[in-house]
Specification:
single chain; alpha+beta; Heat Shock Protein 90; Ribosomal Protein S5, domain 2; Rossmann fold; 4 domains; nine-stranded mixed β-sheet; six-stranded mixed β-sheet; 22 helices; about 35% helix
């Protein structure tokens, strides 16, 4: 075997993280042990999974474990596992390059102040580098399962690392930390026990520490298991503390922040199921990736897969946690999961448990919570909604079975000025004569609030929901009703506002009185509008554009075109406010020549477009008409 020592430079981003780790001061450097134990546990999980199809990988060494060996005389701490181990290529790829480390995302997310806090490390999957918080030199010796060759990776965090052949009796990985002088506390038995208890007590594999017992000639070395070792989700809720839930979440999600809430459940009956589901406090950077899941699947406490997408719908991709089934086969694959009836049952349970948790959170309202040791009043559900509401809305569109429950969880800005409000609260505030739930869609909250379409609704004290998220258009299209009340767009069709017989008569007279003007305007705008009519929708604005009740909104039409879809031209209805001074002026100067009248009519149409945040088709022409109007004023 060649004994050549290879030298490799770290990638630039990895080098930057190492520089921060080595040269900065941290308040949580004990996390190095949590991260290394977590990596060891993952290596054993993967070996255990591989062994289902290749039992020979275990060989004679079937007792899977993690070992800690402190050596005060040498000043070293050894973290050892008998998991699947790594090849030469895996050592280089996993420990020296950005491809697996997540370092680039970490560096992009760290501000100057955050770079002073080691808590960010575990959040981005670069936990191995935390070894340099306490060690001058890190030496990794690893032998892949099924291989006869071991390899050594070594670095002092000075910009490069070495790789050379090594010796190891069997599969697995040894990490030897040459501890810094101010980190020798991690050679003390009590210190190691405390860190393991705090961070890794739930790890399902035994964590054994080599300890010395007795004095003088009676002194002997023995192994002591220092973690609880039982699956946290299999324990009774009364046996699990708040801190244990929080630490379990951090370990399984690689998120250093505390979870917002969680549900710990067991299902017994035809199928047996247990698990813990967590709601994160902050949305991850990749929340838009619909293929990213966060639930780990176990079968009879045996790890199966990390992101079990088959048991978690895309619209719940923010959920983190574990699910353990007693009914699935141990050698289950993704292909089997996709077709299995038990999988469908598990998915239904995960969805229901999550929605129940969200409903509990929503009912909680504003409550006293403790944040970083400080008690304060917060509405946790609104905090959740601001982070994940857009993702949750996808479920209304895609999951008909959960639609009713999800509708109760929707939150929107409102003309009632209640900040974010739900549909149930809206219904409770409806006027006695109000028939529908009114909403307006727009590209922004500001545009929605200023929309002329809602003027008459506001005058009648009818509350309007402001929808500025693109997905809202699809959402209301499938939702249609809530608690027997139709969802009605303020910019579509007839608002069907209550009116007296006298008001109906007045409207008919106004339509007849303005008939010649309406016909003339329609003739000018024939290529742009379907109809021109008077309206009771407006109180302050002269005109607005309205879509047929089943038609497509302007914002939806524009978004589809921007996405490259072929959308047929859609003519809308121009509605005029018969009481507005501009409309009255048009009637009084009905003898205007065709060119000037065309300018006035076009200005009305362009103004209606601008009120919706839409540029006129001919902005230059619009500007000229405004200039001519001002010059002749």
């Amino acid at each position: 075997m060649s004994t050549t020592v290879e030298k490799h430079p770290f990638q630039a981003e990895v080098n930057e993280v190492l520089s921060i780790v080595v040269n900065s001061l941290y308040s949580h450097r004990e996390v190095f042990l949590r991260e290394l134990i977590s990596n060891a546990s993952d290596a054993i999980d993967h070996l255990n999974l591989d062994a289902l199809s290749s039992p020979t990988l275990l060989g004679e060494d079937k007792e899977l474990r993690i070992e800690l060996i402190p050596d005060r005389a040498a000043g070293t701490l050894l973290i050892r596992d008998n998991g699947r181990g790594m090849t030469r290529e895996a050592l280089i790829a996993n420990l020296g390059t950005i491809a697996r480390s997540g370092t680039k995302k970490l560096m992009q997310s760290l501000s100057a102040e955050q770079k002073k806090d080691v808590a960010m490390i575990g959040q981005f999957g670069v936990g191995f580098y935390s070894a340099f918080l306490v060690a001058d030199t890190v030496t990794v010796t690893s032998r892949a399962a099924g291989s006869d060759t071991a390899w050594v990776w070594q670095s002092q965090a000075r910009g490069d690392f070495e790789v050379r052949p090594g010796e190891r009796a069997s599969r697995g990985t040894d990490i030897v930390l040459q501890l810094k002088e101010d980190a020798k506390e991690y050679l003390d038995e009590w210190s190691l026990r405390e860190v393991v208890r705090k961070y890794s007590d739930y790890v399902r594999w035994p964590i054994r520490m080599q300890v010395e017992r007795g004095e003088g000639e009676a002194k002997k070395t023995e192994w002591d298991t220092i973690n609880e070792g039982s699956a946290l989700w299999m324990r009774a809720k009364s046996e699990v503390t708040h801190d244990q839930y929080v630490e379990f979440y951090k370990q399984t999600s690689h998120d250093w922040t505390e979870p917002m809430a969680w549900t710990h459940f067991k299902v017994e009956g035809t199928h047996e199921l247990a698990g813990i589901l967590f709601l994160p406090t902050k949305a991850p950077m990749d929340i838009g990736d619909r293929k990213k899941g966060g639930v780990r699947l176990f079968v009879k406490r045996v790890f199966i897969m990390d992101d079990a997408q088959e048991i978690l719908p895309e619209w719940l991709r923010f959920v983190r946690g574990v699910v353990d089934s007693e009914d699935l086969p141990l050698n289950v694959s993704r292909e089997i999961l996709q077709k299995d009836a038990t999988t469908r049952f598990i998915k239904k349970q995960v969805v229901q448990k999550t929605l129940n948790l969200l409903e509990e959170l929503a009912k909680e309202g504003e409550a006293e919570v403790e944040v970083d040791g400080v008690k304060q009043m917060k509405n946790r559900y609104l905090d959740f909604w601001r982070e994940f509401g857009r993702v949750l809305k996808e479920g209304v569109y895609h999951d008909a079975a959960s639609r009713e429950q999800l509708a109760r969880l929707l939150r929107y800005e409102s003309s009632a000025g209640k900040s974010l409000t739900g549909l149930q609260d809206y219904v409770s505030r409806m006027q006695p004569d109000q028939k529908a739930i009114y909403y307006i869609t727009a590209d922004s909250l500001t545009t929605a609030q200023a929309s002329p379409h809602i003027e008459a609704l506001k005058k009648s004290n009818y509350e309007v929901l402001f929808m500025s998220d693109p997905i809202d258009e699809w959402l209301v299209d499938v939702l249609r009703q809530f608690e027997g009340k139709d969802l009605c767009s303020a910019s579509k069709g007839d608002l069907d506002l209550p009116e007296s017989e006298q008001e109906k008569l007045n409207k008919e007279e106004q339509q007849k009185d303005l008939g010649p003007i309406l016909s003339r305007i329609h003739k000018v705008l024939d290529q742009q509008v379907k109809e021109v009519r008077v309206t009771d929708r407006l109180t302050d604005s002269p005109a607005c554009l309205v879509t047929d009740r089943d038609g497509m909104s302007t914002s939806m039409e524009r978004r589809l075109r921007e996405a490259g879809h072929a959308v047929p031209e859609q003519k809308r209805i121009l509605e005029l406010n018969p009481k507005h001074a501009v409309v009255q002026r048009l009637r009084s100067i009905a003898d205007l020549d065709d060119v000037k009248f065309q300018h006035w009519a076009s200005l009305l149409h362009d103004q209606a477009l601008l009120a919706e945040g839409v540029l006129p088709a001919d902005p230059a022409g619009f500007a000229r008409r405004i200039a001519d109007l001002m010059a002749g004023a």
